[in-house]
């Protein structure tokens, strides 16, 4: 897999292509989800991250089902206060949560129920999908199983400048610890130090491009995998490449539309230098794989 690859032209069947976007976390997957969500050739449910495959391998299955039920209750409460223009969206989310919960508690073939969930409402569309960055942590065998569920299955993996991705991930973690409260810059910088000292491997693993790509290389036909740089995805040419890979029509993207933008906070210079050293193997791997690094990875980024 020498770099971003293109699928040879092929005759598409009547069944839509199944797409998995498996990461990386904080690399633009939410923005891409919103692009697909409102693309006329695509059918994506109103829940972005389904966690079907990683949930099946965890010991949190019952807790996750309870979490879905709690989200339904929260949305029902929000629906009661919603203005008319928001009601359809909220009702759709409630229905999708209920349908996903039914998949997870099904006593029959849950994989078949999962596929039915993705396909429901997709009549006439070319693409369905599941955008769950945590799937990048799955073993090769599970990625192979995912690839075999439909006749035409594709994978996209997105890479952002490693330092910027990590810092964004850390800020997100702190923001989610105390929702509704003021963001704590000191806590974010403390957590960053812990990551850089190797004490938060669960966070650093979400940006391990080498591990994710090597598993994809071992599991999936390379013609069915597209590797994308975040900094190049937010361009008309980047979206054209994605649309061509998936066999869907090009629709001009809203390049400047923010999705899940993190809290702005400058990284301390010493911390940035340590992060660059900590993540040097990721930069080296990407440069070796592609023969280059994106221009944005080579210049000093804005402190946001």
Note the topology.
Layout: E1 17-21, H1 29-37, E2 42-43, H2 52-56, H3 61-81, H4 84-104, H5 110-119, E3 127-131, H6 140-147, E4 153-159, H7 162-177, H8 185-196, H9 201-204, H10 209-219, E5 225-229, H11 230-233, H12 236-246, H13 269-278, H14 280-290, H15 295-298
Parallel strand pairs: 1-3, 1-4, 2-3, 4-5
Helix pairs in contact: 3-4, 4-5, 6-10, 7-8, 8-13
How many DSSP helices?
15
Task: From the 3D structure, determine the CATH topology of the largest domain.
Answer: Rossmann fold
Gap between N and C termini: 33 Å
CATH class categorisation of the largest domain: Alpha Beta
- How many runs of DSSP E, i.e. beta strands? 5
Our estimate of the beta-strand percent is 5-15%
Structural class: alpha/beta
Unreliably modeled segments: 1-12
Strand order of the largest sheet: 2-3-1-4-5
How much helical structure, as a percent, in the residues?
40-55%
Largest sheet: 5 strands, parallel
Query: How would you sum up the global shape?
Result: globular
| CATH H-level superfamily title of the largest domain | P-loop containing nucleotide triphosphate hydrolases
Give the C-alpha Rg.
20 Å
Mean pLDDT: 90
The domain tally reads: 2
Walk me through the structure.
It is a single chain. The protein has helices at 29-37, 52-56, 61-81, 84-104, 110-119, 140-147, 162-177, 185-196, 201-204, 209-219, 230-233, 236-246, 269-278, 280-290, 295-298; strands spanning 17-21, 42-43, 127-131, 153-159, 225-229. With 304 residues, the chain is α/β, with parallel strands linked by helices. The protein has a 5-stranded parallel β-sheet, with helices on both faces. Helix 3 (61-81) runs antiparallel to helix 4 (84-104) and helix 8 runs parallel beside helix 13. The radius of gyration is 20 Å and the shape is globular.
């Amino acid at each position: 897999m020498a770099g971003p690859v293109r699928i040879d032209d092929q005759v598409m069947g009547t069944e839509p292509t199944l797409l998995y976007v498996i990461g990386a976390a904080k690399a633009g997957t939410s923005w891409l989800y919103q692009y697909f969500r409102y693309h006329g050739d695509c059918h994506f449910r109103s829940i972005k991250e389904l966690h079907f495959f990683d949930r099946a391998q965890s010991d949190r299955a019952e807790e996750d089902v309870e979490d879905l039920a709690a989200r339904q209750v929260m949305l029902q409460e929000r629906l009661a206060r919603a203005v008319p223009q928001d009601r359809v969206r909220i009702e759709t989310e409630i229905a999708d949560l209920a349908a996903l919960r039914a998949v997870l508690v099904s006593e029959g073939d849950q994989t078949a129920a999962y596929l039915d969930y993705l396909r429901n409402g997709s009549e006439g569309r070319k693409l369905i999908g599941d955008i769950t960055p945590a799937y990048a942590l799955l073993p090769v065998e599970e990625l192979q199983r995912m690839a075999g569920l439909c006749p035409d299955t594709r994978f996209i993996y997105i890479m952002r400048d490693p330092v910027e991705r990590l810092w964004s991930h850390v800020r997100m973690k702190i923001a989610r610890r105390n929702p509704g409260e003021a963001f704590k810059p000191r806590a974010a910088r403390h957590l960053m130090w812990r990551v850089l000292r190797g004490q938060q491997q669960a966070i650093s693993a979400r940006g391990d491009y080498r591990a994710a790509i090597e598993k994809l290389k071992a599991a999936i036909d390379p013609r069915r995998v597209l590797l994308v740089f975040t900094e190049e995805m937010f361009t008309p040419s980047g979206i054209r490449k994605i649309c061509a890979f998936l066999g869907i029509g090009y629709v001009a993207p809203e390049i400047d539309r923010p999705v899940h933008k993190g809290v702005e906070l400058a990284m301390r210079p010493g911390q940035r230098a340590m992060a660059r050293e900590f993540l040097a193997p990721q930069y080296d791997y990407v440069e070796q794989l592609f023969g280059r690094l994106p221009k944005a990875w080579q210049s000093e980024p804005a402190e946001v």
